[in-house]
Amino acid sequence: MRGTIEKSQNYLAKIGIRDCNTEVLLNSVVNKSKAVKDLFGDKMMLIYDVNMEVKEDMETIPLAVNKEALLKTLVRLFFALAEREGVTMEEGLELEYTSSNFIKTNRFIKSHSVSFDGKEVDMPSGSRMMKGLSKIADTVKSKDLNSTYVQIDKMITANNSFKKVKGKLVLSILPLDFLTVSSDSFGWTSCVAPGGDYFIGASALLQSKDSIVAYYVRESDWHENYHSVPLKKSWRRVVTLNNNGGILLGVEYPRKISLLSDRLKEILVDKDHIASEDFSTVVGLYYNDFKKASHMESFSLLSNLEKDQDYQDFYNVGVGVYELRCLCCGRPIIMPTLSSVVCKACETVDIF
User: Fold this and answer.
1) Mean pLDDT, the chain cut into blocks of 10 residues (352 residues total)
2) Closest alpha carbon to 154 in 130, 125, 136
3) DSSP β-bridge partners for residue 49
4) How far apart are CA 41 and CA 171, in angstroms?
5) Which H or E element spans position 247?
6) Which of 120, 130, 141, 142 is nearest to 97 (CA)?
7) DSSP-H helix ranges across the chain
8) Of 243, 306, 186, 325, which Cα lies nearest the Cα of 32?
9) What pTM does this model have?
10) In b/e form, how buried is each residue of 154-183, taking b as 16+ CB within 10 angstroms?
């Protein structure tokens, strides 16, 4: 185990965590709760083959882009160009095109029409919105209008196209996976990444006895050198699993993928076990994804849970740690800097 952890230290040095304390990393694994140890046995990673279909736009459009907002902007541009060419529109047409219905169903709710050069272009209710845009572009025959239509059509096509992806769902307590929980992550990141405003949250997850990182790696991104170089996470979710049978599933990044969450639940929860209500007390001193009720799900892992048993046995679940240790010297951090994983003393000796 020590050798595995030491392999990750060169990579951690590259992302700014030099002189990383081996004992802190080692204890983060050794001190995991009995529930976590029972799940992992003598391993630090559990790997499951999971194949799924994903939208083509995950490949073609950067994840940082708000696709719905971009689509609406392109539609507004289309109508602005159409008006410039002399197209007269009835009130409410643009509003329907820029509604969420346009993205989800690409169908008109109401009948609409536009006029151009004495010609009427009808768009009946239930007809495809893209067909309406096509009619306008064909009638007006404007180069700029047609170019904008092509861009919109590509986005709609991408949004409705799926491709089969082979990959692996990984459950990990590997220190490197905690400290890169939001980096090297298929183009997305969060405040918990190195250099982020809340990087201390990654250290809190690392040192928490109850925390697990679950993530998905595409087959094309898989490599066996994951002890030294982190795998690219196209999806990830933090799990908290305590000895009383409580399970919390944190926020899904960068988007919700029900197939992966469902598979994760199958791994964690026996179907004969009783699912708990939402936890009444959730503490997250340094990692707060679990504080928002809409971001979490809770389950019971108690194999001997009876229907009349007091659910309070597993209501109280600790997330993160109260005595966070410096990743450089190993001493408790007093008055931590939220963007750092080392204490004030180690910061002054220029370890970054």
Assistant:
1) 76 76 87 89 92 57 58 89 91 80 76 90 87 91 92 77 81 92 76 82 86 91 88 88 73 81 80 38 46 41 37 43 80 80 71 36
2) 130
3) 168
4) 12
5) strand 246-253
6) 130
7) 2-14, 22-30, 34-40, 57-60, 67-84, 93-97, 100-104, 129-140, 143-159, 175-179, 200-207, 258-268, 344-347
8) 243
9) 0.64
10) ebbebbeeeeebebbbbbbbbbbbbbbbbb
End-to-end CA separation in angstroms for the chain: 26
C-beta of residue 324 within 8 angstroms of C-beta of residue 203: yes
Q: Which residue has the tokens 């991408």?
A: 158
CA distances from residue 196 to 227, 235, 326 in whole angstroms, order as listed: 23, 19, 17
Contact 174, 227 (CB under 8 A): yes
- Structure tokens belonging to residue 58: 């995950």
Which whole-number Å values give the CA distances from 257 to 55, 103, 216, 217, in the listed order? Answer: 11, 18, 10, 13
Q: What is the C-alpha separation between 344 and 338, in angstroms, rounded?
A: 12
How far is Cα 192 from Cα 349, in angstroms, rounded to an integer?
A: 23
- Burial pattern 231-261, b for ≥16 Cβ within 10 A else e, equals bbbbbbbbbbbbebbbbbbbbbbbeebeebb
Question: Omega before 230 cis (within 30°)?
Answer: no
Tokens of 18: 């030099």
Distance (Å, rounded) from C-alpha 206 to C-alpha 199? 11
The position carrying tokens 């309070």 is 312
